[in-house]
Amino acid sequence: MAVSDPPGSRAPLAGGSRVDGAPGRASRSAGSLRLARRRLAIGGQQVTIAVGGRGVPLVLASGLLPTDRLHVQTLSRLASAGFRVVAADVAGSGAAGEGRGLDEYSRLLGRVLDELGICRAILAGHSLGGRLVTELAAGRPELAIALLLVDASVGAPWDELVRLMAVAPLSIGVLGGMLLADTLSTVPLARDVEQALKLSRLAAPVVLGHLGAPWRLLGPGLSALYAPASAPLLDRVRRAGIPVTVVHGDCDLVVPLATARDAARRTAGELVVVHGGTHSWLLQDPETLPAIVRELLAGRLGAACARAVLDAGLDPVAASGPEVEAAFLAEGALVRLLAPPEPPRPVAARRARPPHYRWSRTGATEPA
User: Fold this and answer.
1) Cβ-proximal residues to 173 (8 Å cutoff; 6+ apart), any chain
2) Bridging pattern class, strands 45-52 and 36-42
3) Coil, helix or strand at residue 1
4) Strand partners, 122
5) Which domain holds residue 159?
6) pTM of the prediction?
7) Mind listing the pLDDT tens digit for each residue in 175-233?
8) 62 near 34, Cβ under 8 Å?
């Protein structure tokens, strides 16, 4: 395994300040923590990751679009909430470029965690990334402290949609058009010009990269369309006793809200509905998901973290931040070396912005 810095990655992705090591205990006046982008060479595949923060590991898998670039504002705010954030772009690795399926991507994600020395983590994923972390958790439940699925392409309704596209190929174009419309409608041109400009700067290299190599999307796209059903994976996650939270926009045109309801029901998980959220609502507002996570830390997600700390032989109340983090990392873990150093003194706090979206929560339900 080799590590390199992607072009332009030596500069931090966001401004930084100090943060406590326990989730949800970041300083009220802290700015967003910095993240560093690195490229890992694992088994002949190139995987780009973004790493930052300290605390309980939170691994976020991207979908077709690279999370480490487009969602950097959200990632830096999650790091400020007291997590060791790792965003992995396994879908852009080319792992399925030779016709291999989504299971290859999930195995690659598992190898990334192994190489980084992450023994346990909150596994999170958006869209296709949600399918990848579900498959990883179903196959290796010992890795998952909890599962956080954000507008994830999992659930029986999604499986039915995939079967429809398999017998009616023209519907793939319809879905692609819906994804394009969803993405364009997400850009806050009128509501928040400042955020629209930031998003445009972040998206420019991504768009240019895909225009120069459009085949990079073909492999993961086809793998998603011809993947086995996801519902059995959710059933396995529930049998493994992994706490699950499903976060989904109620205006998602690509992955219907019914899929989220089914995923929450199958896993006896909690459902968080983001009102007015499209499939790509994370791009419009980087404040909402961190605010949701902070709220979840007062409930089942926080209980899952405390239980994992207790399982590691530590007192969840008395343990220090470094002790908590060390409980989930292997000795000499590479991930410690890849994160940017904390600044010697706090920087000026960024202007606090309330979340744009509102959300509602439905408690865990038992499958029928």
Assistant:
1) none
2) antiparallel
3) coil
4) 58, 146
5) 2-346+353-362
6) 0.81
7) 555 555 665 555 554 455 565 555 555 554 554 444 444 445 555 556 666 678 999 99
8) no
